[in-house]
Specification:
242 residues; alpha+beta; 5 helices; five-stranded antiparallel sheet; homodimer
Amino acid sequence: MTYCVAMNLQDGLLFASDSRTNAGVDHVATFRKMQLFDKPGERLLVLLSAGNLATTQSVVSLLRQRAAHDPDNHNIFTVRSMYDAAELIGETLKQVVQRDAGGQSQGSVDFGCSFILGGQIAGEAPRLFNIYPQGNFIEATPDTPYFQIGESKYGKPIIDRVISYQTPVNEAAKCALISFDSTIKSNLSVGLPIDLLLYRHDTLAIGLQQRIGEQDEYFQTIRKAWGEALRQSFAALPPLPW
Amino acid sequence: MTYCVAMNLQDGLLFASDSRTNAGVDHVATFRKMQLFDKPGERLLVLLSAGNLATTQSVVSLLRQRAAHDPDNHNIFTVRSMYDAAELIGETLKQVVQRDAGGQSQGSVDFGCSFILGGQIAGEAPRLFNIYPQGNFIEATPDTPYFQIGESKYGKPIIDRVISYQTPVNEAAKCALISFDSTIKSNLSVGLPIDLLLYRHDTLAIGLQQRIGEQDEYFQTIRKAWGEALRQSFAALPPLPW
């Protein structure tokens, strides 16, 4: 499986994705699930993916190939809004699933996938979309400023407790890492390294991009500190009164 | 949905279940998911259920009805071991699913359900089983002393961090309540009241049985203290170094 989370906050966007893919328990591999489409100063689009790897890779390849082959036409580097980008990705996703799943007895294979698309195109505000396997999509708002795809449940409680639209984006990055730590501890199908990307509004350039592996000193520090804090907080709770 | 958790620890057994059932978002109701089959001094069996309510209720009704109609024969109050009780429940489950799902086009209805069965019968040690929708079952051991059924993911990280076979059962009860709080916060299909039952080994009697609702003072205290401790612990983590 996979775990990806992204947030559209007051001062910026935050993206994080794991790198584990598996087909059954035998075929475990590392694949980056964060893709960038950027023209510095003009647009920065970040795409996170979960689901069938053949489908997500094909969607990304087609987006890049079509832009390269026909740079002046409607493509991921020329769309005029984030909304149009989400629509283009949803359309491409439907084409790939139609091609791969259509006209064969599919058995129990799931060709579906989900995307989170976020970023900013000059002339409009930063936006964040969750693109469903059906190709349609929803947009984050200040009421619900974050989306998760993949193995989202283990890491949701900490986000629900800590994140609001006003949370500074670097605090949100810390929260995303804790959310990943909880997920990785409880689920084998989510694994390091974590790709982390931080974008500050209206910069139209990457704020911070970091790949966080097993040896990353900061990640080791906070996962250990968090585990200890949880155990101490738990021990400090009053005992059952009954 | 539902969330139930049970643990077989060094000094006792712990059971907790929520009370919300829903079919779609319209049919939301409160049903107890914890059933007791006990003869004080001789046996105490606790059954937690998740899944199709028609199926789980039928299984429980048949277990009780068959014991009432034919008290001297093989039934839930006469089986000689917890293993035989798990087998009887699995068998009853298969009969109900066969009856309800067989011989009709089922559409997309899922008739399946899961059970956790724990307790002690005089003459053997306390035991804990997870009974699958197929009617087969696994038993908890000191390596993995707990089972969850239903919406298990949100509340798993805290259990994974805090619980071991050596954890005292009243500490485990505290952990179960925190695990429920995380689940209820993140998932609408799990709701109060929580039924909590604590059993101390070799007593063959209920140690503590408590129904915990919205107004429960202790639950209010620990969920508030836990939320604050999490936010404080989070704020105390070192900032991003990059």
